[in-house]
Amino acid sequence: MLTRVARVLLVITVLMASGCTNRRALFDGMVPASATSVHYVDESRLNIGVKFRLVSSPNSYQYVDAVRQKLHSAGYTLCNKSAITKWVPRPFDPREAAAPAFWINELYASKGYGSFFLVRVDSIPAVNGLTWNQKFVLSEQIIHDGKQNMANIREFCD
Predict the structure, then answer these.
(1) Ordered DSSP codes for 74-134
(2) From CA 135, how far away is CA 101, in angstroms rounded?
(3) Phi, psi of 31 (to 5 degrees)
(4) Which of 111, 117, 144, 156 could form a disulfide linkage to 82, CB 3.0–4.6 angstroms apart?
(5) What is the pTM of this model?
(6) What are 91-143's pLDDT values in tens digits?
(7) Dihedral angle sign, alpha carbons of residues 53, 65, 78, 123
(8) What is the pLDDT of residue 38?
(9) Domains of the chain by residue range
(10) Which of 136, 120, 125 is nearest to 59 (CA)?
(11) How far is Cα 117 from Cα 91, in angstroms, rounded to an integer?
């Protein structure tokens, strides 16, 4: 009897782990090998994210474009109303040092609005200014059928 219970628990564990692995596969294609401080966040089976840092050329779209291409191939489309798709000055607290800092913020939706994907990238110059430190925050939220508030979604997505 115990072996049967152990087998059932093993199958459940494998299925749960494979669900997380499949969802993480989308992110794994977005996290470059040169990324540092990679941290996955699994808040629930409906919400998953990853944070990481990169060094790039000033205001480089190299890594941002790779994320955009991966999202496009996964069936996501940009919610134009919510997106800041170009590097713009980041809002900052006036008490902070006024070092130049720039950000990109984009919200993507799957067909039928069953899931949303947020891309946020902050970029600040390194000491020499020839390279920039980019901090990526990527997250996906799955919405159950019938749970979408279409009035709110239309405020952000076309």
Answers:
(1) TT-EE-GGG-EEEEEEPP--TTS-----EEEEEEEE-GGGSEEEEEEEEEEE-TTSSSEEE
(2) 11
(3) -95, 105
(4) 156
(5) 0.78
(6) 766 666 666 789 999 999 998 888 899 999 999 888 778 899 999 999 998 88
(7) positive
(8) 93
(9) 2-156
(10) 125
(11) 22
